[in-house]
Amino acid sequence: MSMLGYFRRRLVFKIGFVTLFAIALGFIGFSLWNSRQSARALQDETRESSQRLARGLIAGIENAMIGGNGILVSELIQSAQRAIPNVSI
Question: What is the span of the domain harbouring residue 31?
């Protein structure tokens, strides 16, 4: 008797196959959901981190401007532009 014939006749194999298929489908679904949640959390953390960096940079520039130190303001801006090339100030 071939394996396919065994599968056709035995209810235990059919139930086992359906059970394994359901478990595999559940793991795949959970993995997809988990990866999307992780990507979303990473995006949120990156956004918050960049906002904190921008607030710190702005505070430093404002402090130098209030102190009347134009050279320091210029150096801060140039340093920020070198360190973060994709950001315009």
Answer: 3-83
